Amino acid sequence: MRTAVGRELPHEEVGRSWAAARGPAQGLHVDTAACGRTSRAVRDRVADHLALEAGVGGYVAEAAVTEELRGARDLLGALLGFDGDDLAFVESGSAALAQLLASWPVETGDRVWVLPSEWGPNLAAFSDRGLRVEFLAADGQGRLDVEALRRRLAADRPAMVHLTAAAAHRALVQPVAEAVAVCEPAEVPVVVDTAQALGQIDLPATGCAAVYGTGRKYLCGPRGVGYLGVRDPWQARLVPRAPALAVGTWPGEQRPVRRLESREASVAGRAGLATALREYHGLGPALIRERLHAVGSALRSALAGLPGWRLRDPLDAPGAIVSLEPQGRGHDVGRTRAGLLHHGVVSTVAGTERAPHDMTRPVLRFSPHVDITADDIHRLAALLAGLGA
């Protein structure tokens, strides 16, 4: 397969296998950063568990999948650089952050350091918890200035540093490992939002204090299943506040983070995520990530120079997220997205509320998975050109 710029994409077999596991899409789905397409096996696993619940009752059915969910935590931990026992399942990334902040040893007025590209709802969560946000220095692309962080820590110390590993509105990846290496000697915890990063980019075992996110994006698990991980010594400092029933003494839960795991949950969804994780590991995480980077670069190359649009990131930016910023007055991004949807192309309009300190205009975001083809890329570029005209 050749891209619009004449370069071959690697790992064709990964794309074909991914597509075959899902069956035909109804059009062109380039919206994985919102919600990926589940496989047939994932959908079947969810249905099978719901049938079991109907047959034996929800709690008996949940007990029957204890080992499967333990295995899912281990597979998830392998991607996050965490021990499976230090991970808890929750409903979403936003629910995970809310649980984490409610239990974290911080007080009203404490400070959290973030980058200007921080996800808008995270900023709202910090405010809801009574935390004061202060911004870190970044380079011209929006990446953390690690040396500036080092100098700042020599004179000051926040309650935590929070990083979004991969941004939702554009192809921006943060140097998490480098940040942890600088913060660890100062005993400043680094908390990482991995919602967009998980499955798309490599997340090495950095030693960050906590991670959280959701399984519905590049892992292509069901909606409604997120995760939260906390590492020692910070896990021992958690003060679980919910659920209210016997919060400190859940039987069998020795790890404090597991007491944050939601008890009233979609267990069928968790079983579906377990299947999605097995499929992802079966194809090979490194191969998937390499192909995702390649399709992102190919799509940016095909859309570069499109009249009325500007690429938000360099052609060789990491990962598969591609954002176009409209140029000129009166350009209705929502209308363009609706026009694409009319032609069967699923994409997202990312408004400025997603990153209010990094965005001045809405962007049109595309986030393909490994199953996108050269023909798909050409078709998308042609459709956008036609809609622009």
TrEMBL record:
Coiled coil: none annotated. It comes from the Bacteria. Residues 31-380 form the Aminotransferase class V domain. Its cofactor is pyridoxal 5'-phosphate. Keywords: Pyridoxal phosphate. Pfam families: Aminotran_5 (PF00266). Signal peptide: none annotated. PANTHER family: CYSTEINE DESULFURASE, CYSTEINE DESULFURASE 1, CHLOROPLASTIC. This is Pyridoxal 5-phosphate dependent beta-lyase. It comes from Streptosporangium brasiliense. The lineage of its organism: Bacteria, Bacillati, Actinomycetota, Actinomycetes, Streptosporangiales.
